[in-house]
Design goal:
In chain A, 42% of the residues lie in helices and 0% in strands. Chain A is an all-alpha fold and 91 residues long. Chain A has one domain. Chain B has a single domain, classed as START domain (Alpha-D-Glucose-1,6-Bisphosphate, Chain A, domain 4). The chains are: A mainly alpha (91), B alpha+beta (172). Chain A: One of its GO terms (cellular component) is nucleus.
Chain lengths: 91, 172
């Protein structure tokens, strides 16, 4: 994992964490992601499907992202619909 | 009409590890073009976890393409289903906006290898199309070339995350 390892494919420093679409949502994103990652490994893969434990984090995080998406003019009719496993899916 | 592309790759990790690393594959040394990643929707559907992610990537078009696509970034929507019972991850990724200029749609399934349970096979399908008359072949050719490059970068990037996630650093 060392950045100084000569066998690393890319010598540039990569950021530790991925940004959210807007920097102001970053902390909310990290809190949500951490909740989700723990839930996914410890609960979901062991057969527990109750996702609600992360709901409080998701609520704040997604409200922030939603605001940023509107500001940036992202088309929410496209982001809010299913394509996979529907007739619209390419085959 | 367009280009269709198919390939498979093998990850030397069990499906459960791949599933966990899937949510953590960015950032990695091969993903500098991915500017942001957000989960915008997630719910349980039956046995499966359904997720939508919004990614913003840099749009690295050649000069002749800049006439058609004036933005420097492109929004990508990734849908996924994770089935922990059948051990299948299915992803479907498409760009939003400028889809008439160039549409790249990619579907990937990740399943345990039938012969080596500690390995995971990713099968990838992609469709690259353009509706810009007269430039269609150039754009589709460019799109296919960029897709192949991104595809091998994506596999390298995912492998990097898998190696480090597990805490084992292996040398090629």
């Amino acid at each position: 994992m060392s950045q100084t390892d000569p066998k690393q494919p890319n010598q540039q420093a990569s950021p530790q964490f991925m940004n959210s679409i807007s920097e102001e949502c970053n902390m909310l994103k990290y809190q949500y992601d951490e909740c989700f990652n723990n839930w996914f490994s410890e609960k979901f893969l062991q057969g527990n499907k109750d996702l609600s434990v992360c709901d409080p984090y998701m609520k704040l995080y997604s409200e922030c992202v939603r605001r940023a998406m509107l500001v940036k003019g992202i088309d929410t009719t496209e982001t809010d619909r299913d394509v996979l496993k529907t007739d619209s899916e390419l085959k | 009409m367009g280009k269709y592309f198919e390939n498979s790759s093998i990850f030397l990790f069990a499906w459960d590890q791949v599933a966990q690393a899937f949510w953590n594959r960015y950032p990695n040394p091969h993903s500098s073009h991915v500017l942001s990643e957000d989960t915008i929707h997630r719910e349980i559907r039956g046995n499966e976890l359904y997720t939508r992610k919004l990614l913003i990537k840099t749009n690295r078009m050649p000069k002749w393409g800049a006439h058609f696509v004036k933005t420097k970034n492109v929004a990508i929507l990734e849908e996924s289903y994770v089935n922990p019972v059948d051990k299948v991850i299915t992803t479907y990724t498409r760009n939003l906006g400028y889809t008439r200029v160039m549409s790249i749609v990619e579907k990937v399934t990740y399943r345990p290898s039938p012969t080596f349970p500690d390995q995971t096979i990713a099968e990838r399908k992609a469709w690259i199309t353009s509706e810009i008359y007269g430039f269609r072949r150039a754009i589709e050719g460019f799109g296919a070339k960029r897709f192949r490059k991104n595809c091998s970068q994506a596999v390298s990037g995912f492998n990097y995350v898998l190696q480090n996630y597990k805490g084992i650093y292996s040398y090629c």
